[in-house]
Amino acid sequence: MKPILLTVTLCVMLGPSALLRAESPMSTLVGRITYPGPIESGQVVAVTRDSSFCGTTTAIHTVTVNAKTRGLQGAVVSIDDNTVPATDLPRRPLVLTNTRCAFSPRIVVGEVGQQLEIRNDDPVMHNTHISMGPRTFVNVAMIPASRPVEKPLKQPGIYLVQCDAHKFMRATVVAFTHPFFSVTDDTGAFQIAQLTPGEHLVTVWHDTLGTFQQRVTIPARGEVTITIEYPAHVDANKK
Amino acid sequence: MGRHRVPVRRNRVAIEREKDTDLRTHSIGATIVQTVAGLFVVISGTYDMSVQTAEAIPAFARKYALNCTTCHTAPPQLNTFGERFLENGYQLPGTEDGGITGKKNLGDLSLDDFAHYTGVRLRGNVLRAHNFKQQNPPGAESGTVQNKSELGFPEVFSLFTAGTLSKDMGVFAEMESNLEEGATGIERAFITFNNVGGENIANIRIGKLDPSAVFSFSTLRQQLEFIGESTNSSTDAVQRAGLFPLATAAKFYGLRDRSGAVISPYAPSLYNAVAETGVEVRGRPFGDWFMYQVGVLNGSNEGFGDSNKGKDFYGAIRLDYARSANFSASLSGFAYLGNSNATVFDGTRNVDANWNRYGAAAHLRYKMLDLHGMYTLDRITHAPTAALSNFDTTASGVTVALDAYVTNRTLLSLRYDNMDAGGDLTQRTSQTFAGMQIKHYLRSNVAVYARHDLNLRRAEEGNAAARNLRHAVFVGIDISY
Amino acid sequence: MHRRVLRYLAILMVTGFCATTAQALRPKDGRDTITEGHRIYDRACVWCHGTEGKGDGPSGWSIGRYAAPRPRDFTAESYKLRSTPSGELPTDQDLFRTITQGIPGFMPSYRSLNEQERWQVIAYLKSLNPAFEQEQPTPIVLPSPPLFPSGNGITNGRALYAKYECRTCHGDNGAGDGPESKAGHLRDAHNLPITATDLTDPSSFKNGATPHDLYRSIMTGLDGTPMPAYADQFAGQEEAAWDLVWYLQSLSGQPGR
């Protein structure tokens, strides 16, 4: 009798709060970043080393836009003014791979405290050199079939990723102090969950086009779908 | 550098120019183009022009294992760190490392390796070319005023030893052999006692010294080297104008030293002399922003000893600002009071006069730019009126120079020189020149240069040497090791 | 028994005395130390490193002019000469070593400042960068070099030199004339042109030329330059790293020591 009573009491106590969590007024922002153009195929540069493997030329400063959806790929969308504390999920390392003489993915986003794992899948040597402003984050030699190198991201901000052996390789790591960020996929789509209702400032950053911000109103509960159009001529130096 | 002290040596200019027929230049323009083009054909594409390598040679570079540019903007010009090093008696600024760096302690004797004290400079114009408005004017000796080019390297060989004997005791000695002047001797030599009475309270120099060493404009640190004038060996009249930082020059025609020899109007003199014998004290007792300097000398152009009881005195003040990014500036003023340090010929004999000078200078350095300039005003006083009836007792000079590194290895220099001459009314001629030089460092201690000096008064009438020389072109080599 | 006790007591006293003396040479970190360090800095260091420690002193530009190196910016930059992993700040001992030895070609040795003065300057330098308060730089393990290279040591080292593609920058014979260096592709953190070290000239090594120094340079890399850290590559096989050190020394004609 007593155990049953205890169990029932506990269920009664815990149940509603569980229900409340399931029905919490958290919203999800689903959207697409579009760019009216022009689609830039980028600047073609010569490959100065290992061209037998890397090819003779490559393109940098590309702006990749989906022909069908006009979606902008590789834009980092974040909301910095969300007040909900993040849930404590175990975080997998963020993987940055040297592959085919390029960094993959070109944009890595994560949270402060997450491990960044650097790999080399190429049969040539890369020298992955990551810095934020004047401060080096890490500069490691990665020989072919090298074991991965791990280092935690301790500072928020934008990290520049380069290879000193292959000057045309470029990537970015963006670290936030919160988990409310996303990177647009090849259709330009993104999703950020766990948002409190109300007005928020959405920041969109692209490594060639720069920063753009827009106010968005998130309704209580549920999903809100928006399309944000990146203005055609944003100062690409604004970071 | 050139000693170029008076008296103007009578034997130095009447060198016969026998072989000039096949060296005559057709036009100065052709010479300039040929030499500069030739120079750049030789050097272009051969050397890494963008990136510094750690080649370091003479005395202090050896002793401290440093490149030249730690202390120099472009040798011999100093950067701010180098200035403070010199002021501290060749000790690192803010330290008293004279008894420590590089020293071997042998009982109570403390000595450097000799190489740590020693440096050599070998330089000269491989090619000199002069162009005149009127060739062979009356009064000019044969071959001295002709459009021609001359081969010349080397011109000056300097051996110097410098450094510290112990903590706060320094020494400097320089021997120079100058083929243009036909003379070899001790150029400067002095001993220093530093930080007497506390850090930078008083620094004493004793010996044959250059008073303007710590001034905002230092005679011996010009990029465009002294080019001596040519004077007539019998009459001492200037035949071919000299090329000097004219603010430092004597600026008087017909002024004589105490032994009666004519002082060249071009000779760096008084406070701006290359070297005079005396004692000097200077310091920065209130901080880096202010320096005082006072000195007493035997007198102007007193070779050895003092030919009279009178001493010359000088005092200078310097204000510094070195607190901004990549920038430093200084402003200085001096007064030099001579005591029977010159003579004027009154028709019968040479009579004593006081030759005084006052000057102000400024120096600005910002990254690759080095701008410095000076104005000097000379006055002859205390001479009998009779002696001065044909004599202008005032002279002034201005020099403004700009040096800029256009690449890591190429230095561009510009200099403006103006002399408002004084002295003998029949001889004195003002002079205004502009000089341009491009100097390329093949290595940090080996440079080649091409230079053009242009007479800004070349269109003016008159046969004086200062008007007659229209262009001068020089191509040379400057080596230190 | 009595004598043994006295002996141990004597050893204890001597050790204790030595320990306290060593401590006494290094002043306690604190306001006074930093103020003293600032005073020394303003007379000795400001000319290159600048009044705010940003590496922009009145003579700073002269050092490298249009190319690397520039004087260190103590307020925000990474430090090049360290015993800590890539991306980390130097230890106090690293800073002490740099000030004491200088950097050949570019920075004089400040051995002439006494030890206490050098520690005071270090305290001031650290106060210029808030990261020193937030981070705890930990040096890498620096094992002792074997007394002599093993039979195949230098040959192994040569193979490592090839495997890690050191020739890319340092050249086939270590003369600093590798293709990337000669082509002018190498840039430092300020995007200034920089060349690879000429490994045949140990007198020019900024991080030192002893076996330990070479080991340190290879393992920690030189932050702010293209020279990467190889610690992860050598993890678990430090002996191989010493083979590379012997090979590097052989490039300048020094026998492996």
Summarize the structure.
With 481 residues, chain B is mainly beta. Chain B contains four helices and 25 strands.
Class from secondary-structure proportions of chain A: mainly beta
CATH superfamily of chain A: Cupredoxins -  blue copper proteins
What portion of residues of chain A belong to β-strands?
A: over 45%
- CATH fold group of chain A: Immunoglobulin-like
> Would you state the CATH class of chain A?
Mainly Beta
Task: Give the overall form of chain B.
Answer: globular
Q: End-to-end span of chain B in angstroms?
A: 16 Å
Major sheet attributes of chain B? 16 strands, antiparallel, barrel
The CATH architecture of chain B is Beta Barrel
**Can you count the beta strands of chain A?**
18
Q: Give me the Rg of chain B, rounded.
A: 22 Å
Low-pLDDT runs of 5+ residues of chain B are: 1-26, 37-57
Report how far the terminal alpha carbons of chain A are from each other: 65 Å
Identify the biggest protein-protein contact and residues per side.
Answer: B-C, 44 and 43 residues
| Overall shape of chain A | globular
Protein described:
The complex is a heterotrimer of chains A (239), B (481) and C (257). Chain A has two helices and 18 strands. Chain A has 239 residues and is mainly β. Chain A has a single domain, classed as Cupredoxins -  blue copper proteins (Immunoglobulin-like, Sandwich), CATH 2.60.40.420. In chain A, the strands form five sheets. In chain A, strands 7-13-12-9-10 form a five-stranded mixed β-sheet, with no helix packed on it. In chain A, a hairpin with a 3-residue loop joins strand 16 (198-206) and strand 17. Mean pLDDT of chain A is 82; it is low at 15-23 and 235-239. Chain B is mainly beta and 481 residues long. Chain B has helices spanning 28-43, 59-64, 80-87, 465-468, and strands spanning 103-106, 109-112, 118-132, 148-151, 156-166, 169-178, 183-196, 202-209, 230-231, 238-240, 252-253, 276-283, 290-297, 312-324, 327-337, 342-345, 350-366, 369-381, 391-392, 394-407, 410-420, 422-424, 431-443, 446-455, 469-480. Mean pLDDT of chain B is 88; it is low at 1-26 and 37-57. Chain C has 257 residues and is an all-alpha fold. Helices cover 46% and strands 0% of the residues of chain C. Chain C is built from twelve helices and no strands. The longest helix of chain C is centred in the N-terminal third of the chain and has 24 residues, at 2-25. The N and C termini of chain C lie far apart (45 Å). Chains B and C meet through helix 3 and strand 14 of B and helix 2, helix 3 and helix 4 of C.
